[in-house]
Amino acid sequence: MQELLFEASVSGGSPLFSADTLLLDLSMPGMEMGKNEVTLRKAAENLYRGTGVIVKCPSGRTLWRATLSISETLKPSFTFNVRE
C-alpha cells in the first residue's frame, strides 16, 4: 500500500463542473472492502487532483472500480486492475 495521486479532467462548459471538489469512490466489484473515498480538489480549470490508497485484497483479486461523483445523477465509473 502506498499513497497514489488520482487525477480527473472534465470537459464541457456545464455548471456541473464548477465545484471546488469532486468525490472519487474506490470499490472492488463483488467484494466489500470498506469505504474508500478520495476527495479531488480543483487544481486548474477542469482538472481535479487528490491522493489516496488502494488496499491489497487478501484474496489476491486485483479488479477495482472508480466512481466519480460529479452530481446526484452524473456518476461515471470505470474498472481497472492494480498490480503490485
Question: What is this entry, summarized?
Answer:
It is built from no helices and six strands. It has strands spanning 3-9, 21-27, 37-44, 47-53, 63-69, 77-81. It is globular.
> Would you identify the CATH architecture?
Sandwich
Radius of gyration: 14 Å
Distance between the termini: 9 Å
Number of strands: 6
Strand content: over 45%
Can you list the strand order of the major beta sheet? 1-4-3-2-5-6
Please, what is the average pLDDT?
87
CATH topology: Immunoglobulin-like
User: Are there runs of 5+ residues with pLDDT below 50, and where?
Assistant: none
Largest sheet: 6 strands, antiparallel
SS element count, helices: 0
Instruction: Give the overall form.
Output: globular
- The level of helicity is under 10%
Query: Total domains, how many?
Result: 1
CATH class: Mainly Beta
Overall structural class, as computed from helix and strand content, comes to mainly beta
- What letter string, H or E per element, gives the SSE order? EEEEEE
